[in-house]
Structures are given as C-alpha cells and as structure tokens.
Design goal:
This protein is an alpha/beta fold. Helices cover 33% and strands 16% of the residues. The strands form 3 sheets. It has an 8-stranded mixed beta sheet with strand order 1-2-5-6-7-8-9-10. The mean pLDDT is 93.
Length: 290
C-alpha cells in the first residue's frame, strides 16, 4: 500500500525524525517523564535531559488538563484521518504509555482511534496494566478491533539497567498473554547492551512476537561492539527467523556499523539475506508496506 507522506506537527501528533522515524510515521506524545529510570535512556542527554529524562511523569505543558489532551488528540486524528488509517500512531517517545500515570489517557485515545479504524502501536516496559481490570475490560468488547492494536515491549535482557521497570522475562510473559488474546505484538531489541542478553530475549519471545526492531546502543565508544560478535549475532537472528518466521527490521545503526567497521567484507548483504528481513515502512497491521 503506497502512501504519500504527510508532515504532522500538532500538539498531540507529530512526524518523528531521525532514529524515531524508524519506529513510526506518526508519534503521539502527551506526557513527558518516565519512572523506569533506565541507565541508557537517550532522553536523559542534552539540554532537555532534566525535563524529558525525568522520572516524574507530567502532562505536556501545552495541554490544560487530561481532557484537553484527549480532545486535542481526537481533533488531530480527524484532521488527518485518511493518512492515519494507513500509517497508524505510535505511543510514545517521551514516556511509557501503559504505566499507571498515563494509561487512562492512553485508553481514551486508543478507543477513539479504534472507532476511527486507526491502527495504534504501544511500546512499554511495564506489565501491571494486565492486572488492571478496568483498563483491560475495554479490550475485550465485541466491537473492539484487536487487529488494529499492537503491543510492543522493549527487551534488553538487562534488568540491572532498568531498575523500576517490569523484569524482562515478565514482559515476555505479558507478550505471550496478549498474543493469545489476539493482539499484534512486537519487540524493540534496542539498545543492545550486550549480544548475549539480546539474543536470549529474541529466543524467549520469538514464538509469540510478530516483529523485532533491532538497534545498537547510541552514545558509546567506537569499540563498544566487537565485529566478530556483531557478525555472529546477525547469523543467530537469521537462523531463528528462518526457522520460526517472525519479521526483523535492522535499524540504521546496524547499517552504519557495517559501513564503518566491516565495509571491506561486503557484509551489508547479511542484513537482507532473509525474506523475513523487512524495511522501515513495513506494517505490522497490513503485513507489508503502510
């Protein structure tokens, strides 16, 4: 499905840039701050780090209150309805959309999007929403389209670096539950802290994960990864996807690493050798391009 790109710059919806654009054509940020306090969090860097990387969750200042945030989201959805029905909406780049502080507003937005036939992707490191009967009840309504909702979990395998998040194996258990309920599932294997932890996460979640997006750690020294381990990891993932059938998107960080450290070996072909390796415009909802 070919789609003409549309640039959004609203209060709720916007077009991500850079590495974030590899996750979604449209993002939704209603809150800033995240309690997980991950050591590697990119939001902690730069001049906006104290605000965006804070562990205190706050509604964005452009909204009067949560009702205003939801209404703004609804208006912006209707304004770009046809485009959003094709590319979907990603929650969220500046917080976790399924923690207790954010999920009531997230729920209101997802219900509206679902009624408008807009696909949504939710990326989280939290699992206690599964025990929230009020939150989960609307997901089981007969009229709710589960095929338009994808639950994703960041999986690094490094609980020690994510002190306030649900443990990685608990996230994988949650993914299994959601897959069995009929939802689409995906995993963000990013950042790769170490290859052994990441391949374990892929092996454990592969039977019930539709798509893996895999990326390297940013802001580390040039020799953080060793080329032979890098190559072995790609081979391991290739073997798994050919055997199980899940899709893999290699983020640009992988391509850049090869260009810089392995260009003489013509290793770039390794990232396209499997028919299960997809491009950034792959849609988990339409099993192809947006």
């Amino acid at each position: 499905m070919e789609v003409t790109k549309c640039k959004l710059n609203g209060k709720a919806l916007y077009s991500p840039k850079g590495a974030a654009a590899e996750y979604a054509a449209v993002g939704c940020n209603l809150y800033t701050g995240c309690p997980h306090d991950c050591q590697y969090c990119y939001l902690k860097r730069g001049v906006l780090g104290p605000q965006l990387g804070s562990t205190e969750v706050k509604l964005k200042k452009c909204f009067k209150d949560t009702e205003d945030a939801v209404m703004t989201f609804c208006r912006e959805c209707d304004k770009h309805l046809e485009y959003l029905q094709k590319v979907g909406i990603f929650f969220s780049f500046t917080t976790d959309p399924l923690i207790k502080e954010t999920r009531e507003v997230t729920k209101s937005c997802i219900i509206f999007a679902n009624r408008r036939n807009i696909p949504v992707k939710l990326l989280t490191k939290n699992t206690d929403f599964l025990d929230d009967e009020v939150f989960m009840s609307w997901l089981e309504l007969p009229e709710f389209r589960k095929d338009l909702v994808a639950f994703g979990f960041t999986l690094t395998g490094r609980d020690d670096m994510e002190p306030n998040a649900s443990r990685n194996m608990v996230r994988i258990d949650a993914m299994k539950v959601l897959k069995e309920k009929g939802f689409k599932t995906f995993a963000s294997i990013e950042p790769i802290i170490d290859f052994d932890s990441s391949i374990k996460m892929i092996e454990e979640s592969a039977p019930f994960c539709d798509l893996f997006k895999i990326g390297l750690r940013s802001g580390v020294k040039d020799d953080y990864y060793e080329p032979s381990e890098f190559a072995f990891f790609i081979g391991q993932v290739t073997g798994l996807t050919d055997r199980i059938g899940f899709k893999v998107y290699w983020k640009e960080s992988f391509h850049k690493y090869i260009q810089k450290h392995m260009a003489g070996e013509n290793f770039e072909v390794a990232l396209s050798v499997s028919p299960n390796f997809v491009k950034s415009d792959y849609s988990i909802f339409y099993e192809g391009k947006h």
